[in-house]
Amino acid sequence: MLTLLSSLLSFLMSGMPKFLEMFQDKADKKHELALAAMQTERELALKKAGLEYQERIEQIHTEQISIQADTAIKTSVIDAQKAEMEALYKHDAEIGKGAAQWVINLRAGTRSLLTLGFFLLLVLIDIMIFIHGYQNGASFKDLAEMLWDEDTRIMFAAIITFHFGGRAFGK
Question: Where are the domains of the chain?
Answer without folding.
Answer: 17-99, 109-171
